[in-house]
Amino acid sequence: MPKTLKEIAKFLNGELIGDGEVAINQIKSLEDAGSGDLSILVSSKYEEALAKSGASGFLVPKDIKNTHDRNVIKVDYPSIALSRAIGLIMPEAIPHPKGVHKTAVISESASIGKNVAVGPYAVISDNARLGDDTIIYPYCYIGKGVSIGDHCIFYPNVVIREKVIVGNRVIIHPGTVVGGDGFGYDTQRDGTHFKIPQLGTVVVEDDVEIGACVTIDRARFDKTVIGKGSKIDNLCQIAHNVVIGPYCLIAAQTGIAGSTTLGRNVVFGGQVGVADHLKIGDFVMAGAKTGISKSFPAKSILFGYPARQVDKARDMIASLGLLPKLYERVRALEAKIKELEKK
User: Fold this and answer.
1) Run of H or E residues at 177
2) Domain 3-89 in CATH: superfamily?
3) φ, ψ at 314 (rounded to 5°)
């Protein structure tokens, strides 16, 4: 059902300029939008684009000066506002399964909340709990004693091992395993490896999103923790007893070894590697492929292998480019020394 710009502005708590009775059916980019579409201007630097776009309405930043007589809604964060508007204007844009499929296997001792959806061939084990409005896609496995909060979405082939605790509004993408055994072995005198039982669990706090094919290992005794609001990209490895603080961003193919602790709002680029038993302070940032082998204080900006403060790392990288010339100068000096020695 179409929504008017006036309804959208009220929903977003934005400032409407223009005709509030214009009906909006879809959301599209500036280039593709036409009549009946809502679009977005992410920065006032590009305000000239308003005059060229065919959209019927726009979400724009509050500091915009020239609206070119277009219908606009001024908001603090246009991109965030657009994401919220999708749920109002296009509620079925991302369809989810509904109800419990007849092939799903649900234990009689499991607790299932209101409006829960469970897809084909999903398994909900003994004493597991699913909160209200949670969606479990096909072929997921929810282990014994798992607790899952409200409004969660687990996409196909997600595995949640026994006794794992998941908060509210958690999204987990396909193929991820939460609560697999930590990589722990004692090497015996004869060279064989004795498996160390992993008796702990994993706690995933509220508003976490975990990408596809991520592995988060259970702790040996206590718990591995993914802090509130943190976002983990695809193909990451989080080892046993790791504690990730709130609102961290972990990009693809990052690996964090056991018992390392991250503070709040830590940001790791792709393929960052972190050694075990380290402490990474609040607001630390590490560029792609950084290798972190020691602890760093809050607000450090790191790059390189081994990790260094970014200014020092840049100087070292720049110096590497001078090595060929330096090599040639040394060879020339050696040649002159040999000539002098002959004399």
Assistant:
1) strand 177-180
2) MurE/MurF, N-terminal domain (3.40.1390.10)
3) -65, -40
Q: Where on the phi/psi map is residue 317: left (φ > 0), alpha (ψ -120 to 50), or beta?
A: alpha
Whether 306 and 291 have beta carbons less than 8 Å apart is answered as yes
Would residue 96 show up in a list of annotated catalytic residues for this protein?
no
Residue pair 128/142 in contact (Cβ under 8 Å)? The answer is yes
> Residue 167: its pLDDT value, please?
98
Asked if 116 and 130 touch (Cβ cutoff 8 Å), the reply is yes
Whole-number Å distance between alpha carbons of 323 and 307: 21
Domain range summary for the chain, segments of one domain joined by +: 3-89, 105-313, 316-343
- Which CATH code, of 1.10.443.10, 2.160.10.10, 2.30.30.100, 2.40.50.140, is assigned to 105-313? 2.160.10.10
The percent of residues in the chain predicted with pLDDT above 90, rounded, is 85
Catalytic residue, chosen from 101, 173, 240, 277, is 240
Please give the C-alpha separations between residue 195 and each of 26, 160, 182, 215, 275, in angstroms, as whole numbers. 55, 21, 10, 19, 21
Residue 79 phi/psi, 5-degree rounding, is -65, -45
The string of pLDDT tens digits covering residues 172-225 is: 999 999 999 999 999 999 999 999 999 999 999 999 999 999 999 999 999 999
Residue type, 46: Y
Give per-residue pLDDT as tens, 68-121: 999 999 999 999 999 999 989 988 777 888 999 999 999 999 999 999 999 999
The 8-class DSSP code of residue 151 comes to S
Find the Cα–Cα–Cα–Cα dihedral 275, 279, 282, 283, rounded to 10°: -20
